[in-house]
Amino acid sequence: MKQPLLDMRGIVKSFSGVRALNGVSIQLDKGEVLSVCGENGSGKSTLMKVLSGVWPYGTYEGEIHFDGQQVKASSIRDTEALGIVIIHQELALVKELSVLENIFLGNELGSQARLDDEAMYQRTAELLSRVKLDVLPDTPVRELGVGQQQLVEIAKALNKDVKLLILDEPTSSLTSKEIEILLDIVKQLKTQGIACIYISHKLDEVLALSNWVAVIRDGDHIATKAADQLTQNDIIGMMVGRELDELFPRESHPIGEVMLRVKEATASQHGASRPQVDNVSFELKRGEILGISGLIGSGRTELMQCLYGSYEGQYQAQIELEGKDISIRSQRVALQAGIAMVPEDRKRHGIVPIMGVGRNITLSMLGQYCGMLGQIDEERENQDIDEYIARLKVKTATAELAIKNLSGGNQQKAIIAKCLLSKPKILILDEPTRGIDVGAKYEIYKLMYALVKEGVSIIMVSSELPEVIGISDRVLVMHEGRLKGEFDHQGLTQEIIMNCAIKEGA
Fold it and tell me: Has this prediction a pTM greater than 0.85?
């Protein structure tokens, strides 16, 4: 009987008595792609950490067999020696080193006395050609875009004679063209006999690439099925354990008077050839969800940073909130005015990773818990923490657990809770569902509608066109810093937005 390349049998992993994995078993043959799907917190990442040696042998129950032998790894170095390589969502490249130096870091050719620079240069050039990345080996990684850096990570894996490549949310920050290149490379690796485990919330990619789809829910292995026998709705149903009537639960809500007027917003970085935001004017109504669309680099995020006082370059704008002119030069001023923002990069700008979930929620509003002598009223603070954790359905063992230990979706809910604690009149959501699963997305959409029914106005920046059309009342489209179009959601299509987003000229 033929043995599979990978055979994980009955994997059980617990944290503080709570089971994160409950007897999960998966198999994979050479040259096949297995997509592992599940909501954030379902156990996908934990399973991959067991497989890749982050959680060493002896810290979990069950067995792993790879390429005909049992794996008893004590570290990632052990699994990489076997040919198992994982590329995490947060890339692990050293930005100040060159592409060559990153690829050979810790695996240099030559001797301690003298490195074989010529051999490493030639090998790097071959690897870059293999992943279709047209840069020189001595190019500093800091000069590469996110998509190019992703390809360097794959080249680095190929240099380690990879037999099984694990890709964790590889396309969450890529453009459509970069996604196309990456998917083509994975298909090529299949033809070379390299197996791949693919973790993604983008189910169209999952179905396009995979031979098999395994679904994990709350630590349990629900099923592994042939990808060509599944639809996106089939996968969603297994992931969430219920049928979602529709992915975007549009709800009717009253839209009131103009809440915010922005006139002639302009923002630029020193030495830049053109403004990142170029003379943009728009209005936002009370209880409205205003979608902002456009390609990466169109100025969407920079425009939002100007409204929130967090833009790091020079900016100016006439801003009128509830009929009164205001000048926003800091995030504190924005919060005091009633504007809160969930940032695009939640790990860099939204959380303090080592701090507890509760303190992350109250951090920006600690002043409201301080008494006359500067002492914090911890009882009142803890009451608010418990209330908002419950309201946002943040899955955490305790409020004291470091927020870095939560799934991406639950980190995002905690950041939204932090914003809601300030009782905002306007909530800016920049890529609110990036890298989170369909179940968590659905909950965030329902929350957005609950907020606008209460009179909160929402601005949502998103790269996902179905999301923009499915959730927004009105959509603005930007291109190279300028506002190119404004559309009502009725009758709006992805083609209309894309044609507007890519067009040149006024």
Answer: no
